[in-house]
Amino acid sequence: MSEIEGPNALSEVSARTGFSRNTLRRDGELRTDESLTAALAHGEASVYLSAGGKWLVKTDGAHLAAGFTLAEAEALGADLGEAILLGFDAADQPALASIVSADGDEFGPRIAAMDLRGIATEGRFDPDTEGRLAQAAHLIGWHAKTKFCGVCGQPTRSAAAGYRRECTNCDNVVFPRTDPVTIMLVHDGEGRCVLGRQPRFPENLWSCLAGFVEPGETLEDAVRRETMEEAGIAVGPVTVVASQPWPFPGNLMIGCMALATSREIAFDTIEPRGVPLVFPRRGPGDAGGRACGGADAAQARGHRPSSDQGVRGRDSLKEATREGAASSAACRPRAVSPRRLSSRPAPRAVPACAGAARASP
Ligand SMILES: [Zn+2]
């Protein structure tokens, strides 16, 4: 039994988010340049292939497979000398990621190219595969943007089986970076919270506010600053609830609960993001009795990590928020947008653009 399936699983909200259930053993402390050579000599190695920003998958009717053999990868034109060793599965078989240069349309009827968001949203693969693809996407994106040295400008080369890049001219060494992003459910402690949306969001998708953590800033201060910038609401106590790998392109999404200490919404004071949506108090039958949405709401409704194709386990923090809002009639938006958390909203149309995540892709 893995750790996330053990007794602590029910209290670990992070394990219920999409991309979080990658089971590969990374062996980071053991990686050397020889690790890649050894992995490529393993007869049972599998390779995840990125082409034009999408992921190649083998299709056989209703069945999909994201892993390719080394021979299949080479036949598709993968440059395995630049492959990234993601880690090892329970049978000690290596999993790698590599790039092929052509578009997915060129590989024939039994191979398709799929977008990682679509893979996660549609639940086309098991959570472990989703997590591996997220790890691969994060690393491939980092390599693509780190081909030249930030000190002397000369080319860098991949090292440590893809977990490091070294300058070919000076002694500069760089490691994969992960940028922290806060996503916060700002609530008033009385059952109401603030959500927003971006124009590119699908219909009826609303999100918690979110934003990058800036240099020299704590997570809690980032929540307070971003909430003030995006909605003009002052925030007091902040609680970190969960985190989620977010490979768009290389973030860690950190979910927080934040208690508003002011009620006036002064939206668009800094960022032009429209008007936030405020959900009313939850009904007496709803678990928790707190603000709706977010990982907290998912937890309150007893969502469990699942090893099957269920949607619950692969919810992103944002999608959990949407689900949390939509699942309760008491939390359904009134199609209005009040200017005060504490006042009954006057009817008005919800704008097409309302505030949301600067950091989200
Ligand atoms: Zn250099």
From TrEMBL:
EC number: 3.6.1.22
Keywords associated with the record: Hydrolase, Magnesium, Metal-binding, NAD
A Pfam family it matches: Zn_ribbon_NUD
Family matches, as InterPro entries: NAD-cap_RNA_hydrolase_NudC, NADH_PPase-like_N, NudC-like_C, Nudix_hydrolase, NUDIX_hydrolase-like_dom_sf, NUDIX_hydrolase_CS, NUDIX_hydrolase_dom, Znr_NADH_PPase
Domain spans labelled Nudix hydrolase: 176-298
Bias (Low complexity): 332-361
Annotated segments matching region Disordered: 280-361
GO MF, any single term: hydrolase activity
UniProt catalytic activity: a 5'-end NAD(+)-phospho-ribonucleoside in mRNA + H2O = a 5'-end phospho-adenosine-phospho-ribonucleoside in mRNA + beta-nicotinamide D-ribonucleotide + 2 H(+)
EC supergroup of this enzyme: hydrolase
Biased composition (Basic and acidic residues): 311-322
Highest taxon, organism lineage: Bacteria
Membrane-spanning ranges: none
Cofactor: Zn(2+); Mg(2+)
Family, as annotated: Belongs to the Nudix hydrolase family. NudC subfamily.
Protein name per Swiss-Prot or TrEMBL: NAD(+) diphosphatase
Organism expressing this protein natively: Jiella pelagia
